[in-house]
Amino acid sequence: MELDAAKAIGAGIACIGMGTAGIGLGHIFGNFLAGAIRNPAAADGQFGRLIFGFAITEAMGIFSLLIALILLFT
Amino acid sequence: MATDPIHQFRIIKLIPIQVGGVDLSFTNSALFMVLSVVTIAAFLLLATRKRALVPSRWQSSAEVIYEFMAQTLRENAGSEGMRFFPFVFSIFMFFLFGNSWGLFPYFFTYSAHIIVTGAMALVVILTVVIYGLYRHKLHFFRLFVPSDVPGALLPFVVVIEILSFLSRPISLSIRLFANMLAGHITIEVFAGFVIALASFGALGMFGAIFPLLATIALTALEFLVAALQAYVFAILTCLYLNDALHPSH
Prior knowledge:
heterodimer; A: mainly alpha; B: mainly alpha; two-stranded antiparallel ribbon; 4 strands
């Protein structure tokens, strides 16, 4: 197989990582919403932690995007 | 595609300077770092010039940003951690303003280069290690030995803890770098779609509105990501400094 073809296939496989990051993000926000509906008064206090957790999980998805971009462009 | 999306990250030497064989040119990256620092200093100094007891809007915004970062550091590193406040505040403002300035057309995002974020992450981790060793001498290595672990598992847990500590500078630098890189590449790819569709004639120009709306939405998202990633870099710095100040598990 040519190197360019193998790199393109690898970039496509790396995109699976972004899908799993999406699952993780849905998990975080779903749990936050479930808790916020039970206890709306406490929800605003935890917003900072929610955003921090979102950023850390999103970072994993972006790492896999980085691998895909490295494979495609070098 | 006319230009590939990597083209926006190239370094341009504005003023070539050679000092004994070392290339110290003033590049576009340096120019935007100077712009960020000048804007931060101007904002903070001019906003708090009057020192009114009841703050005006400008002074209030400067105080809110200061208090926000001070509260984050105090919460995560304790009141002893406040000795690092100039350090953490500088990192936060540097990346906040740098990421935000990079979103204007034709402006350069210096945090989209791994060398910049890598250097800052290295400074953070070296501060943690050196201050931890200076303050606690060899007790600093208690960080890698969690308190209640069965004896048989202890060697493996210690190795895993050391590896996860060593991965901190890598993840810290790559998180900011990859977010900035991916965001700008996505905006440029969608903008390229606008040009590509509009070149198809009247129907194409009508269809080009959709990538244009997507580009606008992505730019708004990138402003959020710029602020968020600066905040995440700062709060992770606070957490790692907490490990240097209180290394017991």
